[in-house]
Amino acid sequence: MSCDWCEGGACDLVWGDGFYAEIDNGELVVSNSFAAGEGRRKINFCPMCGKALGGSVGSLRGPPLMKGRHTGMKNIELRKVPCGESFTVFGEEYVALDRVDGGTLAIRKEIWKKAVFDRNGKSNLTQADMRDTLAEYTELLKSRGMKDSDCLVQHIDLKATDGTRVYGYLDCTVALLTLEQYGKYKEIIPKADDWWWLATPVWTRWLRSPSTDYTNYVWLVYSNGDYNHGSASYSCGVRPVLNFSSCLLVSWQDDEAREDTPAADVAPVQHGRWEECDYVDPCIHGFGTIRHANAGLKCTNCVNVFKKELLWKDNYCPNCGARMDGDGNG
To answer: Is the pTM of this model over 0.85?
Structure first.
């Protein structure tokens, strides 16, 4: 037996006279054959994923009576889910990152699938094959009941890390995180089991630089949380990002269930500042290294050095996520 939305194998759903639930020896029992009575409550949602039911959605699979343990999940408005915590909606699990433009920015908790950014090596997301992959994910959510009003349009800044904005902006519903966003939310984004794409290009073809060979490179994140750039023709993981309506009903683990689980090991907010420094490059001919005076920026928190032409001064370090507002870590 399974819910059409969560496919969790824990419910038998068909919309008719509705469902009634009761607690029987510590177990949640849901059936469409119950009649209203003492201790029974009419419900119109999947007890596993919390998806509201209406119209003619869902299908009856298996016998009309289902028994299953209470999942510790409850239906709440997304605006009540704290940033950094996970929730489930439309059969997908996400992590809430921030409140943006009246919505809740969220990233899929795990990699959805692997795909090339672009078969022809284009680093411009507006023209890349990745757009088709993200459109496929959009259709998947719509097939599970997502309406246009459930998500807000995102305005994605495709500024390259050389500071140029040749690619402009992309307006879309389902997107990828930018490098800047990854630096900002790195501490609350769960690590994945493979490399995954970001939306930010490295260089653009208009940059007059010895490194113009890398105009087909896009930033990506390793499974350990570090980041680097790779060719757009590589196949890496896709973690869709959406800005959901904050009024959307989602499934979230309640406080009672949390008492039985260890507290999350949440790192405190780190602070730092950018310091100008030399940058050392390997010689392209293999003869040692070349030191470029005052060509680098060093984060005082993690002591990582970044090449200026690859990193614009920002409020967050892309490596450790430290806020660039001073050294107040004590």
So the answer is: no
